[in-house]
Amino acid sequence: MRTLLDIFGYIILLFGTLLGAMSGSLILIVVSIVGGLLLLALSHLIGIAENVQARLLDLPPTLNTVRAVVQGAAAVRVEAEDIELYPAADAKYELIELDDEQYMRTKAFRHYLAVMDSRYTFSLPNRPSITLHCAYDYDRGIELFALDGQSFVMLKAIGVEAVRDNGVIRLYARSGEDDEGEV
Q1: In this structure, are residues 132 and 151 in contact, taking their beta carbons and an 8 Å threshold?
Q2: Are 85 and 109 in contact (CB under 8 A)?
């Protein structure tokens, strides 16, 4: 629906204005501009209403929303005490937050990662090996998903916690006490 409104809004705006200019009709130009902008504004309002509805109903984010969050996240320096990140010197990654969970690209843990088909095995130091299945799109609570050729892992799932500190993301081992109350 929104796509059609956008298309017709631009068509009316462009062709109506051109026809009005070619015929010398000021009324056609004004009607085309107002009508085209009205359709574009209506499309934008529908998008806002869809986002509000999704938040009120507590729906998971759409693929476009996840993509926008990933693309909008800034890459910052990442440090870890007991994990050697890839690349070792000045590693920069995005910390993605979706549905109150923290995700990071699996590439950061390349030194401790084995991939076979869609199974990713993380063997981080001082933690048991964890094998996760990679989903091809995001869904609430998913531990590992792929998007646009990149894979993202929920840090909690591999026993890691991230804290933002003065423009740096610091990774720490999660203590087992944090998971006791969760189901």
Answers
A1: no
A2: yes
Measured CA to CA, the distance from residue 14 to residue 16 in angstroms comes to: 6
36-50, 81-95, 164-178: lowest mean pLDDT where?
Answer: 164-178
Closest CA to 37 of 75, 11, 61: 11
Whole-angstrom distance, CA of residue 20 vs CA of residue 175: 69
Measured CA to CA, the distance from residue 172 to residue 157 in angstroms comes to: 13
Beta strands 113-116 and 119-122, pairing class:
antiparallel
Assessment of whether the complete model's pTM goes beyond 0.85: no
Q: Are 122 and 116 in contact (CB under 8 A)?
A: no
Q: Give the residue ranges of DSSP H helices in the chain.
A: 2-11, 17-23, 26-56, 63-72
| DSSP string over 29-45 | HHHHHHHHHHHHHHHHH
Asked if residue 72 has pLDDT above 80, the reply is yes
Residue with tokens 């095995």: 121
